[in-house]
């Protein structure tokens, strides 16, 4: 437990803390996506397994936050969609991949949230 004065030494307010937590998770997820859409996607499986229980709880909590300044779910959707578009456009640049990318991002986020919840429940 930290005191109020200690909290405000490191963060301007709760929104600042939320932004820093989102940035931390987003950074690790960007690394995962780089592996996922890289030359050896099998490495992404090992990277995904390394999510700690604390990271899972944090990601689930951040997925619930929807404020005008912070919307973690929307940020992750955009991140996955853009990474898929970059990957798919390299495979066949003549196709319009936007619908597929949006669908993939929605499915990936839903599946990820499902497995995060399942992992949290099974570790109790």
From TrEMBL:
This is Uncharacterized protein. It comes from Moraxella ovis.
């Amino acid at each position: 437990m930290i005191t109020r004065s200690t909290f405000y030494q490191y963060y301007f307010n709760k929104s600042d803390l939320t932004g820093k937590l989102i940035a931390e998770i987003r950074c690790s997820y960007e690394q995962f996506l780089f592996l996922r859409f890289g030359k050896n996607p099998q490495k992404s499986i090992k990277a995904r397994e390394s999510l700690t229980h604390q990271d899972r709880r944090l990601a689930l909590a951040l997925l619930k936050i929807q404020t005008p300044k912070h919307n973690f779910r929307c940020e992750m959707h955009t991140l996955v969609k853009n990474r898929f578009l970059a990957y798919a456009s390299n495979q066949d640049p003549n196709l319009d991949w936007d619908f597929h990318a949006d669908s993939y991002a929605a499915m990936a986020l839903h599946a990820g949230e499902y497995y995060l919840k399942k992992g949290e429940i099974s570790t109790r």
